[in-house]
Amino acid sequence: MKKLVFALLLLALLIPGTGISAEKKKNPLEAWKPAFDPSGAKFTYILSNVSHPVIEGVGVGYRIRDKVWEKSGGRLYVDFRPLSQLGGEKDVIAKLKLGAVQGMMSSSVAAANVSDLLGIVNLPYVVDTFDKLDTFRSTPELWEPFANGAQRQGLLVADITGYGPYGWATTTPVKTIGDAKGTNFRIAQAPVNTDTYKAWDLKFTVMPWPDVPQALQTGVITGLDHTAIVCNITKKFTIAKSFTELNYAQGLFVHLVNKRWLKKLPQDLQDILLTVIAEESAKTRLLTRQQHDVQVAKAKEAGVEFTQLSVDDINELKKAAEPVLVQWSKKIGPDYLATVRKTLTQ
Q1: Which of 20, 144, 156, 229 is the most buried (most CB within 10 A)?
Q2: Considering the domain boundaries, does residue 15 fall inside one?
């Protein structure tokens, strides 16, 4: 009996303690809570993203939220949901087309699943630098076909932000194509990436992002196709301590909007939303340049080794990828791709 009483008392003490512990568990998005009460908004724009808002190209969602609230006088609330709160990108794309979600900042690798034309920004060595990205966005002849590239799916491309240039984070240094041949790279679930890695004749594994940490730790993969910003912020460099600055594409977030929902908004709110998205996205592209430099410097200070392939190796990758560009030009439109490539190499 005494043992039973003691056990019950111990249980009574533990239960409240567990509750307190749960309450004290920090909300990862606490710092981004709105400074206003959105409950009175007449219209709500649910905007999804899979990544963390500490990445500037993601955090723009909150800056859009606050500016739209201010300019609309509290009539339109941008309910921004980062960190995959609404599911993975393929799931959210389906919800976006149906209108269950009104907006999505899709990764550029996933955007090619929405429309082949959107895959142009992920083709190797086309929109591959910050300067080329700015030219692409500011040149109507290049931007307008892209902005209208998902019309058949009922979506509008409102703008783009980024997360830096792509490279290889690896567990052992990759300084030559020969080194790369011995690496198993994780790549995104995207058609352009698959075609590119096949053309480069490199070993790769298509893997969802949440599976990456364990796969790196266990050696299932020995390399990661991603950007220095993301690899450093998400602690991938704690395992993969080498980074090859391949710079074959810019990692982008493509801001997609459900057109049917947008047209139901009063005209002034449509204008406010699209204008704010454009203004904040432009500011964020500048912030992303700065964040890239900062994160690379931090990674180097922490002991990550940064390297670059030789000019000959880069030219070999470009040559090997040329059939991929020819193949995708048929999906994107040969004239459009030719115009983009010509303009960006001038």
Answers
A1: 229
A2: no
